[in-house]
Design goal:
α1 (2-15) runs parallel beside α8 (226-237) and α3 (43-64) runs parallel beside α4. This protein has helices at residues 2-15, 32-37, 43-64, 83-106, 122-135, 151-164, 174-178, 226-237, 247-252, and strands at 24-28, 68-75, 110-114, 142-149, 191-194, 213-216. The protein starts with a helix and ends with a helix. The protein has 253 residues and is α/β, with parallel strands linked by helices. A six-stranded parallel β-sheet has the order 3-4-2-1-5-6, sandwiched between helices. The protein is built from nine helices and six strands, in the order αβααβαβαβααββαα. Bound molecules: 3-methylbut-3-enyl trihydrogen diphosphate (2 copies) and magnesium ion (MG). One 3-methylbut-3-enyl trihydrogen diphosphate binds at residues 28-30, 72-75, 77-78, 198, 200, 202.
């Protein structure tokens, strides 16, 4: 079985066009609960297993030359879950940030937290800041961990910043809004992946996802690996991104 997997991985890798790697991949890591339920385990075990998956995917994306990966780990809506699960998720997120710091740094990765940080436990924000500062000059992929993140909240927060800076209505442009999002240097999301078969984007990257290619897979997040990422990348490379134009115009470029 392992041999088959290796053969599959190698043949998918051969199909991949290194010139068409998306600069920014967003992943809605869904299905931890169902993964656990189908094995008679607690939802928390599912989240633990899901957290383990992150390493494989981040490392592989970095090796392929992906510049940004945004991982949706906790939405503004997820506070509505049972408080036991919310606390467990917050503990897991904090533990993940601390545990993975040195390995991520060794791999040359950068680290950023995206979301309403002022509503998070200060300890999580502090640990994230340590990682961000430690890795800020690294050359590799930027891991953008989205916690207490909502696409609408991000736009609302941008509008507040703009008003506080004193801009007038006729000065509002798309560039100005983009420049006031969380981490304005992040580019648009090229490829948005959602695991677990749900076909919705659940308030993820609304602004930067305006022209994302969407890829939905029934695979549950704890089962998602480098082979699954390769499948998503190949699907992406087979799309024609027209940005409002027609095929013939693109062929000219
Ligand atoms: C995704 O898995 C993780 C978070 C939203 C934090 P879920 O916990 O949503 O898993 P399902 O959808 O219940 O299977
Ligand atoms: C989306 O998953 C949020 C994250 C993966 C963090 P959910 O499982 O919370 O999404 P919905 O509510 O089912 O759309
Ligand atoms: Mg879910």
């Amino acid at each position: 079985m392992t041999e088959n997997r290796e053969t599959l991985r190698a043949s998918l890798l051969k199909e991949l066009d290194p010139a068409k790697i998306p600069a920014h991949i967003g992943i809605i890591m869904d299905g931890n609960g169902r993964w656990a339920k189908s094995r008679g385990k607690s939802r928390i075990r599912g989240h633990q297993e899901g957290a383990r998956r992150v390493k494989t995917v981040v490392r592989f994306a970095n090796d392929l030359g992906v510049k940004h990966i945004s991982l949706y780990a906790f939405s503004v809506e997820n506070w509505a879950r049972p408080s036991f699960e919310v606390s467990a998720l917050m503990r897991l997120i904090r533990a993940y940030i601390i545990r993975e710091r040195n390995d991520l740094h060794a791999e040359g990765v950068k680290f950023r937290l995206l979301g309403r940080l002022e509503e998070l436990a200060p300890e999580i924000v502090r640990q994230a800041q340590i990682s961000t500062e430690l890795m800020q000059n690294n050359p590799g992929l930027s891991l953008n961990l989205c916690i207490n993140y909502g696409g609408r909240a991000e736009i609302v927060d941008a509008v507040k910043k703009i008003i506080n800076k004193g801009y007038k209505a006729d000065q509002i442009t798309e560039e100005l809004i983009a420049a006031n999002l969380y981490w304005p240097e992040l580019p648009d999301v090229d490829l948005m992946v959602r695991t677990s078969g749900e076909m919705r984007t659940s308030n993820f990257h609304l602004w930067r996802g305006a022209y994302s290619e969407l890829y939905f897979t029934p695979v549950l997040w704890p089962d998602f690996d480098d082979v699954e990422l390769l499948k998503a990348l190949l699907a992406y490379q087979n799309r024609e991104r027209r940005f409002g134009m027609i095929s013939e115009q693109l062929a000219k470029n």
